[in-house]
Design goal:
323 residues, TIM Barrel
Amino acid sequence: MAQKGDLMTVRTDIRVLDATIRDGGLVNNFRFTDDFINALYRANVKAGVDVMEFGYKASKELFDTDRFGKWKFCDEEDIRSVVGENNSDMKISVMADVGRCDYRTDIIDSGSSVIDMIRVATYIHQIPAAVRMIEDAKEKGYEVTCNIMAVSNAQESDVAQALEMVGQSSADGIYIVDSYGALVPEQIRRITELYLETAEKYDKYIGMHAHNNLQLAFANTIEAASNGASLLDATMMGMGRGCGNCAMELLLSFLRNPRYNIFPVLRFLEEQMLPLKESGVMWGYDIPYLLTGHLNQHPSAAIDYMKAGRTDYSEFYTDLLDR
């Protein structure tokens, strides 16, 4: 498949989604200050970011509201306290995990909500349930994506079948999600081509969500984009679960689209992200995340290892080999 666009042209179909609260919230149990959230919203609007994701629509029956901050649940009134009627060009999104969301009741009709987009997150084996959620959100009037997680750990035949099922659904877009940060650009190129076959067949767009275990989140994101993906996830200073994600400041700089403005992002980094790191909140590339990415394993073991303050990398590696 021919490369789409080049370094000197602007791809008008590309949109950028900020996932700082949602993926970053996995680092600190979604306990962001109101000042942080308000500043992030203002920075994204000024920077020209296309979509801002506020967090999850998680079930309050399954998850203890005392253990998590409010962006684990994204109540309508909490989002409105930040954005009002969102009188900007930026769309608001939330993520709904299959099996972890009371979507029939917690996701209201879009006409009564300030939310514009529902991102349905699913593993391959949950696709039938994901399709039900997609249809529910679409009937309520939302733009809807299907984010197929842990694609690096799935059989290509299963991915192809899942894509066909999602292709026949009402989803507007389908996401490549490198949950384990295990993929390299050559693999991303082939996967993007596979996804685009479905996208072109069913008139959908492709999104990309990368993790940075191998320090390839940025490279994999631009590789997917160069092959036709058009909704690209990034987070401020790469904040996200474990090793983090593609950094917003890198992506906006790379795209060279004059409607994106990196200055508000830089101001947000110095005023909000640096103090957050200094307070002890941890994320970003480190050897344990490299090892789980190298072995195509979920980063949970590396997260626990980092929290324990361990540095016996060789022993950790041999422990991972026995999993």
